[in-house]
Structure formats: C-alpha cells, structure tokens
Amino acid sequence: MLKIENLHASINGKEILKGVNLTVRDGEVHAIMGLNGAGKSTLSNVIVGHPSYEVTEGSITWDGKDLLALKPEERAHEGIFLSFQQPVEIPGVSMVNFMRAALGAKRKYQGLEPLPAPDFLKLMREKRAVVELDSKLTSRSVNEGFSGGEKKRGEIFQMAMLEPKLAILDETDSGLDVDALRTVAEGFNKLRRPETSAIVITHYQRLLDYLKPDVVHVLIDGRIVKTAGPELAAEIESHGFDWIIKGLSL
Amino acid sequence: MEATKQYIDFFGEVRDVLAARSCSEMNARREDALKVFAEQGFPSRKVERYRYANVEADFSPNYGIQLSPLGQKLPPYCFRLSEADPRVRVLYNNVADEADSIVALNTMLAVDTLVVHVPRGTKVEHPIQVGNVLAGSQDTMVSRRLLIVMEELSEADIIITDRAASQNRFLTNQVVEVVMGDGSHLNLYDIEETHLLCTRYGSTFVRQGRNSSLHHTALTLFNGHTRNRLDVLLQGEGSEVTLGGCVIADKMQHVDNNTLIDHQAPGCTSSELYKYVLDDNAVGAFAGRVLVREGAQKTSSQETNANLLATRTARIYTQPMLEIYADDVRCSHGSTVGQMDEAALFYMRQRGISEAEARLLLKAAFITEVIETIPLHSLRDRLHVLVDKRLRGELSKCEGCKLCGPPLTPP
Q1: CA-CA distance, B238 to B128, in Å (whole number)?
Q2: For FRET with B66, which of B27, B90, B114, B167 sits at 20 to 30 Å CA-CA?
Q3: pTM listed for this prediction
C-alpha cells in the first residue's frame, strides 16, 4: 500500500506540490487528471526519487516503509515502476543487457541468483509478444531509434519484465494512435498481476476506458482537489476542469 | 637540458656495447640520430606535436637502460633484423621521422629490431601477437623497435600488447615502422595495459602503397603517462585507412594521442574515430591532423574525436585539424566533449540499476562504438570483457598496483 501524506515538493526552489494526500491500496487503479503544470509528473517523479526534486514536507510510506529514505534503485527493487512520459534513449546499451542488469539487480536485492541466460531470454520473448514489440527493437540499444509508440510499448514491456507492485503510468497515452493505445492498454491489463496497483496520469478518458480505474483524482495547483469514482473522468472529458476550479475557493 | 646531456653521455658510454650486440643496419644510423638528438634535445611544449606532453620531465628520472637483444624464440613471420630478408633490412629507419628527437633517441639506443615480414600474396590466418612485458627489479627504460613489412597483396592481423608485470617505474620509447605494399591489408592493434608508474612514448609510422588498406586501433586501457604519435602516409592511389582510438583514464592518468593522416595520392579514403572516457583527475589530449596535398583529388576523409568527462576535474584538450590543398575532396572533422547523461542515469536507476553500475554501463556504451569497428571478432569480444573489467577496477594491474590496491603476492 502506498500512503502519501501532506506531501510538499519543489524543484529549483519553486514549490510544485503543496500538500498532496493519496492512498493507493494493493490491486487498486487510481487515475490522476489535471491541467498541464498542475504537478502530476512531479508527483510521479517524487514517488520514484528523481534527484532534481526536493521534498520539503510530508511523507510517503510504502508497505509501511519510509519510501523517501530509499534511493531510486531501492524503490525500484521494492516494486515501484515508472513508465516514463519521455523514455530516454541510451545508445550503446543494448535492451538485452539493460534488462539483464535491471532484473539481476532486483533479484540480488531479493537474495536470488541471476536467471540463467536461456530462462532470461525466454522471459524476454514471452513479455515482448504481449505488447507486440518487434524482436529487432529489443536487440537494439535502449529506445534508440524507437518511434513514440514503440517507446511506450517498450515501457510496458519493461514493466512486465520487472513485475512491479506499483506501476505509475505517466501520460503513457501521449503520442499514441488509437491502435497503439489499445495494444499498450491491453498489454498492461494482461501483464499486471491482480495485486499490482497503478497510478495512471492522463489527460484523456480513452486510456481509462481500458484500464478501468477504481478512483479518479483531480490535481490542481499542487493539491488533490477532487476524488470520485470512474464517472469523474467522463465528466472531465465532456466539461473540462473549469467547473471544478470554479467550485474551489482559489 | 640536464636530461638531454644525461642520455648523450650514456650513449657515449655504451656505444661500443651497442655496436657489438647489434647489427650493421642499426649501428649505421646511430651517429646521425645522435646529431639530431643533441641538436634538438627533448622537445618542449613549443614543438607543436609535443604541445600536450612534458617530455623532459618524463625522461628525467634515473632509469636503468635496457640493452639486451630479443630472445631467440619468435612467433611465425617474426625475425630479428639481423636475420631478416635483405630486402627488408634496408627498410630500417626509412619510414620513421628522423627529425623527431624522441625517435632519434630510440634509433640511438635500440639494440634490436623485431621484424614482422609477410611475404607477397600471403594471407596470415592467425593473428600475430607481439607481446611486450615490462618486468624487472629496478626502474627501467626500454627502447623498443619494430619493423612491419607487408609485401604486395599480403594480409595479416598484428596485435601489439604492452603490459607490465612488476611494480617498478618503466619508461618505454617505442618506434614502429610499417611498410605496406600495393594491395596489402593490415589490421594493426596497439594495446596498452600497464600501470600508473609506466610512461610510454609510442611513435608509429606507416607508408601505404596503392589500394592497400590499414585498420589501426590504439587502445589505452590502463597506463600512467602515455604519448602516442601515429603518422600514416597514403602514398599509393586508392588506399584506405581507418584509425580507431579508445582511451579509458582516471586517477592522475595522462593520455595524449597525436595523429597525422597525409593524403599524398588521389582517390584515398581515411576515417578516424578516437573516443576518450576520462574520470577523476585524468587528462587527455587529442591532436589529429588530416593533410590533403595538392593533387590528392577525390580524397574522402572523416575525423572525429568524442570525449566523455565523468567528473568536473577531468580534462580534455582536443584539436582536430584539416588542411586541404586539393579542390575535389570530401572531408569533415570535429570533436565533442560531453558529461554523463543525467536523464539516462536516472532512467537506469528507476529500473533498479545502481548508480555506480549505471555510470559504468554508460561509459562502456560510449567506448563500444570504437570496439565494434574492430575487424577481428575474437579480439572484439575480448576487449568488451577487458573494458568492462577495467571500468570495474578489476584489471590485474589495477588491483595489484601500489597506488590502487594491495600489492600482488610474490610467487
């Protein structure tokens, strides 16, 4: 379970998150919607420990552990995964070696031996097939020369390899056409385990149609100002955020 | 000046010993070399091609000077100069730049020359490995000399390795001369894996005939102070040269590569890629000059020096140079200096890879581009392993040396 309490965070001295409270229980899917610049990506970056952000107040606990005390790689080992809005290209590091290093590090953290090479390659093949990621792409350098859609599918593929307990999808739908969006969303549904929870950051309802969130939050100016069921996403899709903002005493 | 006099005096003392131990071709060139060396002394930083070296300081320490000839057991195609084909013997000191006083010092003091001679039309199947191991109980200077002769239409891979087996100070002054006949094909690898107390001056001179092709790779995996000069003269029409360079340096290591590609004939192709990964307080220098002479039409040339600085205290001096005196050519040159990609580092850490491992992967990835161009597959695989070990601090020299770890246990 992820528990965020009164979280304040800033970048370069500028406060972005101004007291976020959020609880995500195992197996739940939470959507976070909001205008550009509201702090959605900041929230996901702070959860995974991006060094550019400073937490000035509040706490994040993960299964009772103080998440903020852990390094980014330790948070990953604890089962937290971020599907990046803009996945980074790493020329010269092959996807195979990258995944081998990532999985090896996680297994070491768990006190397990590295997977034998044939098992590892078999796992790669299985997970790749679910998101229809071409074998040519996984034999190349990480994300190098991938199209926008391929990068997003690559993120879901990596998620499947690492089997996280919490997956954060940061605008995974951006830059995807309708078919690619369906592949990614259905891939995500197939690949996540029942106990895996998710935080889905998006501007659009379409992704949520596939992912079926349990809870929808609206983040405005660094605070969660509205929380409701999945019907909230549909209301935002047809009426925008104005009616929510007007209802606030900002 | 002090150091120059020291070497001149020493030469005076050992002149007779050298004459007795060496062969006539080598002895005949010593006095002329002495003149050059005495006139110029050790080059100062004002000498363009020694701008980034501190030559006098490198040669000043009191070294025992090694004057022993080569052993009797040599690899296939290898000979002592005195026992080589007479047509080869006359090529001694005909390719090297005699006006370079460091080369002159080698000509003065070298006792023996290792000749690699590949006869006309011979395709050497297995790579010829020339392994140099610095060993001994005292600080030693070595004047190493090689002459590689590739006759017409011959093919070979030659690997020169430079290693050190004991923890003394070593100073190596190496001169390699390469003559490539028409249509010959040579892959030449020069790999240094020594230790922090080693100083190396390497000078390689290549003369290429018509339609010949050379692939040269210079790798500095571990060293102390290194200065490599590499001159390639494209004398025959239609010849090709590819120069790869790979430098990994940290601590106080210093690596200086100074290259010249001289397009003297038309229709030749050259490409050069040197990559440096510098960490801690390491200092790198790259000066690469591509000269396209009048009449060298249809020249195609590409030169790149790329550098990754892992710390704010590591430094690189980079100087790609292009001089063109012909009007129908395609040439480009450039250099880049960059830092660790922070976004890539974080991306890897989010996937569970530790920061140290992520840095290592990025450094290895940067160097990979050069290693991937190496024609010899078995060496390429070996180098990927060596680079990884080097970056992990697992090379034996690094583990065992006095400055970075516990000393090697005596046998």
Answers
A1: 26
A2: B90
A3: 0.90
The 10 Å Cβ neighbour count of residue B50 is 22
CB contact under 8 A, A50 and B364: no
Going by the DSSP 8-state scheme, the letter that residue B121 receives in this structure is: T
DSSP code for B265: S
Cβ–Cβ under 8 Å, residues B333 and B290? yes
Query: Do the Cβ atoms of B367 and B246 come closer than 8 Å?
Result: yes
What are the sequence ranges of the domains in chain A? 2-88+147-246
- Distance from B345 to chain A by nearest Cα, in Å? 9
The phi and psi torsions of A237 (rounded to 5 degrees) equal: -60, -40
Element (H, E) at B4: helix B2-21
Contacts of B270 (CB under 8 A, 6+ apart): B232, B234, B240, B241, B242, B243, B261, B263, B290, B299, B300, B301, B302, B303
- Type of residue numbered A250: L
Residue A32 to chain B, least CA–CA distance (Å): 21
Grouping H, G, I as helix, E, B as strand and the rest as coil, residue B349 is helix
CATH class, A2-88+147-246 region: alpha beta
Encode burial over B333-358: b for 16+ CB neighbours within 10 A, e otherwise.
Answer: bebeeeebbeebbbbbbbbbbbeebb
B349 in A contact zone (CB under 8 Å) = yes
pLDDT per residue as tens, chain B (411 positions): 689 999 999 999 999 999 999 999 999 999 999 999 999 999 999 998 999 999 999 999 989 998 888 877 898 999 999 999 999 999 999 999 999 999 999 999 999 999 999 999 999 999 999 989 998 889 999 999 999 999 999 999 999 999 998 889 999 999 999 999 999 999 999 999 999 999 999 999 999 999 999 999 999 999 999 999 999 999 999 999 999 999 999 999 999 999 999 999 999 999 999 999 999 999 999 999 999 999 999 999 999 999 999 999 999 999 999 999 999 999 999 999 999 999 999 999 999 999 999 999 999 999 999 999 999 999 999 999 999 999 998 875 444 444 444 433 333
Does the distance separating the beta carbons of A93 and B352 come in below 8 Å?
no
Among B202, B194, B197, residue whose Cα is nearest residue B61: B197
The reply to whether residue B351 touches residue A87, judged by beta carbons under 8 angstroms, is: no
